[in-house]
Amino acid sequence: MASSGLASKDMREKEKGEGPVDLAHLERFTFGDRALEQEVLGLFAHQSQAWIERLK
């Protein structure tokens, strides 16, 4: 999987704690594996959309 949608490491540190996903934590959680990061983010996006639809 491509990693073009992920922020650079510098951006990750700046964004830590901002937004719905802590990218610095995600990087540590996935041991820096960009493909795994993409998979986890994809699961998050899918589940988020499913929950939004249920809440409507």
Features:
56 residues; 0% strand
Description of the molecule:
By secondary structure, the chain is mainly alpha-helical. The protein has helices spanning 9-15, 23-29, 34-55. The longest helix has 22 residues, at 34-55. The relative contact order is 0.17.
N- to C-terminal separation? 32 Å
How much of the sequence is in beta strands? under 5%
Average pLDDT reading: 80
Order of helices and strands: HHH
Overall shape: elongated
Classify the secondary structure makeup into a structural class. mainly alpha
Helical coverage, percent range: 55-70%
| Low-confidence residue ranges | none
Overall domain count? 1
Cα Rg? 12 Å
List strands and helices in order, with pairings.
Layout: H1 9-15, H2 23-29, H3 34-55
Q: Brief description of this entry?
A:
With 56 residues, this protein is an all-alpha fold. The protein is 64% helix and 0% strand.
